[in-house]
Amino acid sequence: MSYLVRLCILALLLSQNLAANAEPYNLGASRVAVMDDPWRIEFQDGTKQVTRQDIEQVVKIVGATQGWKVANSTEGRMELTNVIREHTMSVELTYDATGYGIRYLQSTNLLYKELAKGGGTLRVIHGNYNGWIKDLVAGINAGLGVPVQTTIGFAPLEKADAVPFLKEKGREAYKEFLSKPTPRAFAIAPNGAWASSFRRISSRRERDVVENAIERCNRRGKGECKLYALDNRVVWKKTDTVSAAASRALTGADLVQHIARFAATEFNPGARVSFTMSISADGRAERVCKDCPAPTGTGTVTVKSDEGIVCFQWEKVTYPDSGCYRVVPTGANAFEMRGTKRERPIKYSLVP
User: Fold this and answer.
1) Confidence bin at 13 (pLDDT 50/70/90)
2) Other CB atoms within 10 Å distance of the CB of residue 10
């Protein structure tokens, strides 16, 4: 037998051994999985314009073929429900000219639970739920017929540049973590600390990978480490980043003075959908967005300086989102409004 043939056989045996020993993190029940939520589907630049009516029609047609019914509907938002055998579920679908999103609302008989893991909450549910939402998204995308980019949760697992707080060494460590077998865990902290853990094939008695990653991270992370990735999913939540950024967000008089400077400011410049917004002294806001379903809109603005947030309540406007934001400096004269809940972030610049 030639050397090359022996080498190929050895490589095949090793790969089979790795696959046999790799297994998912033990969540305590064989039927549950980490929830894939929320979903965000972005329409790609250079494609045909998708209208609000297009999305509504496709969702209703595709949803009906899979058992989904529209329970409530307002401009830019639908609540969908489904009953499969003894399982019931409800999701929210929001949409605008840039794409659409789906997030979990509630369910029965789907084993939904919030587990205290990794310094935060790990949401788990019957594994079939993830498959049903995946089928719904695939059907909607096929019906719309435009190229899309799909993100589940905070960011794609393989996107090392999206991991918050990390410096170059940490990002290299994250890339290496992605090559490790499951179960595996990666933890991060606001000060840039990180740690990973995975179960080596030679041992089945090693510590829980989540607990190990958090403990090792906290040695340098001042007790503020949280779980970022578990196995093949990013479990970090956007609110975790917002909480960590709150300490450097504008507050008090600085926030009041900052908002007072708004005068036809352009938001998300260069993006697929940008808009201008101006705020008057009496707390009224005006938004102009030529690519939005409602090109013009008005609303109210409330600056809660003690809490360090600015809140918008729009009238018949689906983008930007109504809700409360923290204003975080991101560069010289550059800022980002980051939602305190599920509001989409918006970027802008203010020249002194």
Assistant:
1) very low
2) 10
